[in-house]
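U., I forgot to send this yesterday:
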Amino acid sequence: MSVRRKLKPVRSNDRVTRSLRALERTASTSRVLNLLAIQADSGGRADYAEHPLFRNRILNTALILKHRLRSDDIFLFDEAQATATKIIIPFDRSDLGLGGQSFFVGQRGWVDLLQEACNDTTDMVRDIATLRMIDMLPSLDPFLLREHLRRHGMTVAACYFALSAADLEQMQGFVSQEISRLIDLAYRDTGRFSGAHAARLVEALLSTDVDERLEPLRETLVLEGESFKEGVFSWKGFLYYKWMLSRLWPQLATVSAEIGQLVIPGARDPETARYLDEARKRLQASVMLERQAVQRTLKVYDDAFEDLIENGRPQAFRAFLLSAPELFLSLGEKVGVISHIASYWRYRFPAGSVPTAQVDEAIDIFQDFEGGLSVSLTN
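Result:
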């Protein structure tokens, strides 16, 4: 059997991706990295050619997904795992509705599948290493991804760390409310502030490029050149995390309660029964401790921002923005794990139903969740 036949076809009615066309339109930034869309938007830019994410051109127009493994996916791996990084190579880059070919990073023989799909029999050492780095992350959120790659000595063009169109649309109102007081401060002396100004500033702040629309904010923060670009990237990162968490907190509270209510029918030995009982309690406590750790990090941002607004002192906020990427690794990982717990639980146990899982599945779910949490509790 040829290597190409091992590649799993992904059609428009595939139950995992449903439709690549729909995925392109509605996908969350943290779940999908759409390299084809990035090429369409930024392929003519000098930095795109100089600092690509992947050197192989086919791979650099793929779709990368953080994917919950299904029962028919698990056999592809030597060791059990709940999620994996999925690579989809479209059959026709001009029509995603035709589907594509896919494989998972880390599945048996995946390097051979990668080289065959990319028509590249040369040594793809850098691209393979990049995929392994991406696979280490709990999500594809651009702020976590950028800092993770930077820590490993990789310089990648800024266009790869843009927010998806779906997330941008949903974030507009949240960001406008968050920075409304700063906009007032930036325009205080000009006397020409309007709703249109606010909308343009929010759009500019969330876009990939830093341009003249942000000049009033640059003057307020007293930042220049690359420092201002880095500051804007960090600022956008914290706004993204705050927006994500504003949606996750209600879900997380519900999931935590349902973990305690999970019905686990079937016989079990005393050791298994003890594990299930203790794991419930650990998970509920650990999830709340993880939440508190995230809130402490966000409070550092809130305090620096408040000092700027209330006291008119940009120094603390400016210093915070320039050092903020150091926080993205821990913050992004925590948010990614929390998001996984909330989304997987709701996928497996739809709202309105009594959550029920057999003993073996309950153990798998609890171990998966506990393995991701950075906070560990012992009895």
